[in-house]
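Protocol step 4 of 6: structure prediction from sequence.
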Amino acid sequence: MQSLATFPLFYLPPISYFSALNTLDFKFEIEKQEHFPKQTFRNRTVVGSPNGALNLFIPVIKGSKFHTAYKDVKISYDFKWQRLHWLSLEACYRNSAYFEFYEDEFARFYNKQSTFLFDLNLELLEWVFKQLKKTPAISFTAEYEKEKPAGLDFRDHADLKKNSSFQNKPYFQVFEDRNGFLPNMSIVDLLFSQGPQSKLYL
């Protein structure tokens, strides 16, 4: 059986994530056995705000950051991060061409409480695939492999430190007149700006 490329599971991943998936015809597996790494997109995303790139992060329960399996990391609701994220998303995209087109379906993720970060991120990823008219057969790693075959390990390809190196083709953004084009934002930046055309963009 041919080995699949292994991807991490991010919170509303950046465009580079889907660009990489597209080059692989969306044939991949998700890493499920890794320890939860800090400073990555597993619990944060970057959107285009009136003041430039804005980081939104999902808080996790204390203790989840150290040698805890990612699939077992629990979301913290000590403060109302869902409300903060939704208000931020509205401020960033209310005036975009397609925010209202996706709003009702997308809002439900911010009106319910998921226990595990992995589960929430997977639901969001599946929702994005639906909007992109993609139906990949999602599979998961059965065990953690430190080394993967060359060209098949994408687990670190889009961490926060490397994120700025990816330059995608410009498209219209809400605050482009203030910020210029902001590359490699969250996939929702593309969806809210391009709508159903996002599939063709990728």
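Step 5 (inspection) to follow. The chain has a mean pLDDT of 91.
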